[in-house]
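Re: [ENG-882] Designed sequences occasionally contain unexpected residues at chain ends

Forwarding the minimal case from QA. Structure tokens:
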């Protein structure tokens, strides 16, 4: 039974771990074109430190671990970390979120090491528009799509595509993404644009509400509800003809904070109890100052107990986190 509970009665069993804040893309909803000042490598958690923390978290009740970034595949020898995590808990639900750039080359090694599934961020299927959104060569779309095929052949399943929908950028591609998912057995997860960009350009006017996303797709590919989101961020809808499903993450217009079961560790070892937390808890400091596992566990329990009720995006007292998405971890 999980010991990780907050003061609102939510059970926490999902841990997101950022392996690096570095990324080879410059997505408009995340960071400026010139990039950010990266955390010095000596401040990034080592694999040994990550494994120790995960062992403690598993003992506290964590059952799902997702490796994120930045771009996690920019870390060297990531298969070594994956193998170590699986040795800790063979039944661990271990997944990764990636931009897909390295997937074609690395997917077989990831699967062989024990990675079970992968989410790939892809916000446009049109090279010119991809270049505008990611600020990298548009033809990389085809490399990413090839990488998805390699990942599927390697046994990573399910494959989910994360598409951040932004008004004026890609809202007219929703049906194209739905078609891609139907034809390739991918679940596309459409994500509302959130205020986590480093340059502070977010506005409510750029948000395409989940209800609009569903309506646009439903007119071409009829949808039926599959389930509530439960503890998962996405509400899932099945295609009425049975050819797969999509997910919608409506964090802005339809918050689901009351069922949140997630916490995060940043690449530099800070525990965040909400994506939009204004406070962090320094686990790296404990690790590197000689704290015992019991002392670290007690600190984690105390931090989780104070997990926020919700993110307050739609409330007058909302305060944007100081860190952007790449620095927090997806």
């Amino acid at each position: 039974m999980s010991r990780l509970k907050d003061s609102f009665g939510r059970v926490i069993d999902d841990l997101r771990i950022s392996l690096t804040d570095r990324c080879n893309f410059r997505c408009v909803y995340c960071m400026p074109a010139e990039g950010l000042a990266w955390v010095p490598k000596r401040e990034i958690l080592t694999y040994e430190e990550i494994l120790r923390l995960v062992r403690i978290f598993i003992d506290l009740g964590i059952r799902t671990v997702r490796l994120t970034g930045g771009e996690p595949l920019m870390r060297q020898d990531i298969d070594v970390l994956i193998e170590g995590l699986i040795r800790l808990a063979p039944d661990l639900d271990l997944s990764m979120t990636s931009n897909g750039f390295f997937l074609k080359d690395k997917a077989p090694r990831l699967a062989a090491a024990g990675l079970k599934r992968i989410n790939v961020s892809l916000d446009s299927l049109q090279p010119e528009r991809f270049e505008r959104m990611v600020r990298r060569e548009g033809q990389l779309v085809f490399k990413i799509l090839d990488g998805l095929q390699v990942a599927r052949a390697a046994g990573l399943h399910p494959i989910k595509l994360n598409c951040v929908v932004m008004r004026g950028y890609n809202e007219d591609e929703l049906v194209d993404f739905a078609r891609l998912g139907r034809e390739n057995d991918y679940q596309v997860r459409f994500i509302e644009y959130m205020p986590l960009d480093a340059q502070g350009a977010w506005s409510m006017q750029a948000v395409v509400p989940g209800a609009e996303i569903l309506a646009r797709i439903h007119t071409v590919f009829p949808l039926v509800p599959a389930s509530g989101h439960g503890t998962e961020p996405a509400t899932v809808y099945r295609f009425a003809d049975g050819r797969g499903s999509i997910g919608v993450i409506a964090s802005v217009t339809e918050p689901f904070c009351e069922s949140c079961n997630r916490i995060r560790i940043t690449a530099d070892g800070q525990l965040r109890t909400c994506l939009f937390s204004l406070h962090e808890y320094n686990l790296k400091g404990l690790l590197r100052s000689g704290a015992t596992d019991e002392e670290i566990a007690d600190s984690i329990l105390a931090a989780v107990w104070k997990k926020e009720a919700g993110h307050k995006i739609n409330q007058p007292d909302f305060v944007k986190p100081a860190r952007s998405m790449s620095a927090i971890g997806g």
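QA comment: On inspection the terminal residues look reasonable. The domain at 14-328 is CATH 3.20.20.70 (TIM Barrel). Proposing we downgrade this to a documentation issue.
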